[in-house]
Amino acid sequence: MSMTSETCRAPAPTARMQARDGGVVLRHGDGKHGDRFGARDVWVFTDGDQYLMHYDAAGDHGWLAALATSPDGVHWTKHGPVLDLGHLGAQDSGSASYGTTYFDGRNWHMFYLGTPNVLDDGFRTPAFPYMTMKAEGASA
User: Fold this and answer.
1) In the chain, where are the structural domains located?
2) Pairwise CA distance, residues 122 & 108, whole Å
3) Which has the closest alpha carbon to 52: 92, 99, 105?
């Protein structure tokens, strides 16, 4: 059976959202919040009238999930890492990063990427295999 342009059409979007690039809202590298080498993989959620952002902070100790808060989603205050690396040999001893978060009404739950492996690249970049891990905490 041969494929023709009639039988091999790629799906096309049926609706588009008009978007405007808002530019950078969180700069890495200030030396105080564990993100000296970079910040990536953002997860933004709300708690009341406050925006919270978990992001991967690439610092001297590796890649860790970090927290920033904002009243408006544009101006952010960094608070540093919210997870630590696991003990030597633990599944998250190389990285505890990319945290996605939800609140169940009593406790916060974070699913995050853990790995014991990092690249020898000077930045401790997380390497395969990755594990999906979970952390929990009570509401403040």
Assistant:
1) 38-138
2) 33
3) 99
